[in-house]
Hints:
The chain is mainly α. The chain is built from 13 helices and no strands.
Amino acid sequence: MMTDRLYTPSEMDDWLRGRQRLSLIAAGVACLAVAIGIFFDADQFFRSYLMSFLMCVALALGCLSLEMLQYLTGGKWGLSIERILQAASNTLPLVAILFIPVALGVHALYPWSHPEVVRGDEVLRHKQIYLNLPFFIVRAVLFFAVWTAGAWFLHRFAENQRDRASYVAVRRISAVGLIVYVFTLTFRRSTGRNLCSRAGTPPCGASSSLPSTDSPPYLSSLQPECSCRAIRVTRAYSTPTASMIWASFC
Length: 250
């Protein structure tokens, strides 16, 4: 148990290693529970995993954007949290790996991933050139590569800001990075917006003039609750980053 007394570096290392072991044990138990959940209800697993994944993405990207904002505007307000922001944004490569289950469960998450649904929906047919599985994966890989590379270059020059050239480089990277950040999130948002209400089911509280048809089983859990859930969760988030990322994956 930590007290007010000062710890030596070796004592602090022992304390941290103990906490790391406990964290690994907790992570192992959680992974076992997740594995069991896949066998009982795979569709629900992918929906729940998507929610958790978005929280991780929001933390990493939110810290990266705040870090770039601080470097660009200057001021001492960000000095106390600079290392925290860097540590959080350095997790982007790991977050990119965590995207793999989302890609594997795309058919349980997005109606546009089913050809039979696209054939029966005129709007989705017009969007098929953008909303298709290969392009979805390519966009995700590209965006994570851009975010990760931006964070790497930013931190590389930020380590030596006392040098004039490094200071200027950090400000330039932050200026360009914030613009790229906004555009990439905008394109990610357009991937899934309003798609949960496709296949003849209107958004929450709306009436539909389309004839009622029997939806396939894999869409029954998405309509109309998915639109309501997306709206509720988006409103619940207090940060624009989390709201935009949630909307992007619907």
